[in-house]
Amino acid sequence: MSTRKVQLVISPVEPHYVGDGFRVHNFIPGINELSMQRMSPFILMDYNSKFIFEPSETPKGVGVHPHRGFETVTIAYKGKVEHNDSSGGGGVIGEGDVQWMTAASGILHKEFHEKEWSKQGGEFQMVQLWINLPAKDKMSKPKYQAIQKADMSRYEIENNGGEIEIIAGEFNGIKGNASTFTPLHLYNARLKKGATVNFSFPEDYNTAMLVIEGNIKVNNSETAPTDHFVLMANDGKDFSVNAQDDAVVLVLSGEPINEPIAAHGPFVMNTRDELMQAFDDFNKGKFGYLEY
Ligand code: MN
Questions:
Q1: Ligand 1 centre from 18 Cα, in Å?
Q2: Which CATH class is domain 6-254?
Q3: 101-138 per-position pLDDT tens digit
Q4: CA of 109 to the centre of ligand 1 (A)
Q5: Which of 193, 185, 170 is nearest to 241 (CA)?
Q6: In angstroms, what is the span from residue 266 Cα to ligand 1's centroid?
Q7: How far apart are the CA of 208 and the centre of ligand 1, in A?
Q8: How far is the CA of 251 from the centre of ligand 1 (A)?
Q9: Residue 151: which region, alpha, beta or left (left: phi > 0; alpha: psi -120 to 50)?
Q10: pLDDT tens-digit readout, 221-248
């Protein structure tokens, strides 16, 4: 056993709005230690902690905008989101579903609360991650993966301790459905009160957890409450999570992409020239077309 220690437990910063439909706490790239490189390949994390949206006839969200050079992964915990993009990808994700969109060479997309859900309003809780692509794949073809909760691979924790939903990568030999460009693991650990689960990732994999529900204790020492982010050090492989209540924990771990990052707004490239090119291509309409 080489224990991986907790580096920091980070409280959510003041939320801001993305469009008018996502009230998010930004954790990556955030204050403290969380630069894009520190958590590579996870270069952005926005977290809409539980928030009640009032009923609205017009769905709230973010209108048509471009992306290039990475993937956006949206994980729904409460509420429903509809997505459409210029490569023809799209769909609705609801509680427990995941939408994995590979922007790569460039897409336009829009993200809104689903129409019927919007009319009723209610509790909304989501995570959006941006996952970087290595230079060799940044200009590959856009792609869309819809991963329904019902189809997710699961690992049952002994003694009715709950389950690990494997979104991508693998856990104890069980593989998740999402295909990724670089090695990474992404799970929802749905733990019953009192359950303990052990995780093990290569030491250099950047690793963190976001506590979605409940309180957890890591390595039997540090406590992390709901809506807190736990940054793990790169000083060992193994760590344990104990659920102090029924808990849901988003676990992320990935091999760093050791390449320069040039990021501005919706584009994440390797050099400034490539960034300029992205703006130029976008202005010339090379990202396709999507109706507002
Ligand atoms: Mn977007």
A1: 9
A2: mainly beta
A3: 999 999 999 999 999 999 999 999 999 999 999 999 99
A4: 6
A5: 193
A6: 7
A7: 23
A8: 22
A9: alpha
A10: 999 999 999 999 999 999 999 999 999 9
